[in-house]
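PROTEIN–LIGAND DATA SHEET

This sheet pairs a single protein chain with one bound small molecule, zinc ion, given as SMILES. Inputs appear in the order they were entered. The predicted three-dimensional arrangement of chain and ligand is reported afterwards as a token string under its own label.
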Amino acid sequence: MAKSKDILWEVGCEGHTDAWVVADSWELATVAAARFWGVPWREVASQCEMKSKIIGAPRNICCRCGRTYFGGPPMCEVCKKDVKLEEEHLRRRLHRAYRMGKVM
Ligand SMILES: [Zn+2]
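PREDICTION REPORTED AS:
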């Protein structure tokens, strides 16, 4: 089955680490990003910011470390884990900051 070129998006959102997702449109990219962050799409849809858009992203080359790998796009397993961890740390940090009243 022929597939059109992959579009790789870097989705930014306040309070979250950047999400790298492959999607056919910006809207679908925000949906995938929300799934990555584990939050309801409605909550983040309007706050998502397009940081980069790469049409025809090379497959099997990690968007984060640039290494060749096998697996689904857009990044290798090592980076996938790293990014997840980054997101968890960020969330914990924010949570603490909220509790201490440092944010807003
Ligand atoms: Zn990588």
